[in-house]
User: Fold this.
Amino acid sequence: MQPVGGVVPLRVDIAEKIFRSAQGVSIKALQDLSFEVRQGEFACLLGPSGCGKTTTLRILLGLDKDFSGSFQLPEGGSDRIAAVFQEPVLLPWRTVEQNVRLALPKSLRTKNLDGLFDTLGLAGMRALYPAELSLGLARRAALARAFATEPAVLFLDEPFASLDERTAERLRHLLLTVWSARPTTALMVTHNLREALMLSDRIIVLAQRPAHVLGMFDVRLPRHYRNSQVMSDLLRSFQQKFPGVA
Amino acid sequence: MSAPDTGDRPPGAAAGMSSQAGLAAALTPVLTVAASLLGLGLLWGLAANAWPSRAFPGPGMVWQVLLAEAANGELFYHLGATLGRVAAAYVVAMVVGSVIGVLLGSHRSADRFFAPWVVLFLNIPALVVIVLAYIWFGLNEAAAIGAVAVNKIPNVVVTMREGARALDPSYAEMAAVYRFGLLDRARHVLLPQLQPYLAAASRSGIALIWKIVLVVELLGRSNGVGFQIYLYFQLFDVAAILAYTLAFVAVMLVIELFLVQPVERHATRWRRRPA
Assistant:
């Protein structure tokens, strides 16, 4: 076991990211954005909507290479990255199980996924097509796909947006259950402070555009102690530290 | 009347009834098509009786010719020759056209450069391509099939270009993040998205191709349905011309019903949502 904080698995150092519109207008989305996520840590990128959180994630996922700066992804283990996007992005023409298995490297395609499907409550849905799932179930399938790959780092982009609060809450608990069973470095983008306080070890607070880090908020308390009383205390101390955010 | 029966009907009978209803529902479209074709045949027969002429034979006479040509093997030999050319030209046109179309659809600058070429080739008459192919490459099979394919390729390019423009980038990004291999990307991400466009190009393609194949055969081959039609045109034998035409249309119908439609049903199975 690596001592926590002994290595820096995810290091982000983006100097600048500029969007150029078709009309030639340039918008600076990110500037001097740098932070670290320790190995095995669950971190949240929290910021107002439109501040560049998703842009940051797309850069880290390797989907946007037009930026200046650098980042270093965690090494070791499977060396793979996994992502849960804002939309589930399941292939509609493949079943739930095929969607999950296609994300695996060829050598692991046939591995046993019963436990993972059971935990996520998808055991009876493996043969269904995504169109036959509710949005909540489709998001569970997206989570299953991400965790099945046993990634070295997991990125989540507001995975519970556009769900009703009860479903979102149930999915947050499911996420924690699966993540605790297979802890991995995780970075989740959200604008929901409560969600961030409930899930993360550390919250990276971003400023308005161009995004840069306003500060860090560490939640050192184990997750099972975070009942509603503790949550409101956390909320209060967060708001003291970052007045005006969220 | 039926009310007293229901009491002593065994439990399985209800299911039997419903499967009978299902069978009837499945047969109805087939019966409709049959009745429709029968009606057309009847109309043709009546018209041929009203104006009897060697240039307008009735369905009975055409059927006689069809049987005679089938019995001496001529029909199947020429049908086979034409079908082979249709299949070869179809495969060449679909493969080449799809590759070009997808490339143009996904590279805007290439599309801007080559779009005039596509318009040019779309508007070159089939006859010109065929004549030029025979002059440049000789009266051979490769020239014939190539000429047909060249006629069809621009249509496939245009359809597949639209397909490539409609590709959803989020699937490609998902595939990139999860490191899909090249083959998996083509098979599980690209082709299913292009399937409706492939189906559209195929449908219009087969119909167009077989008509052009007849012209190619008429101009420069010594077998095939087109060659036979030209032969019987010189003999002024309309019954034989119609016999060959109908035989080939029937073959295309069988292909549509037993090959194209089942393949399409399989490819779109995920769209159906069980009640």
Remarks:
- Chain A has two domains: 1-80+151-246, 90-149.
- The longest strand of chain A covers residues 26-37.
- Chain A touches chain B through 24 residues (CB under 8 Å).
- Residues 3 and 157 of chain A are 28 Å apart (CA to CA).
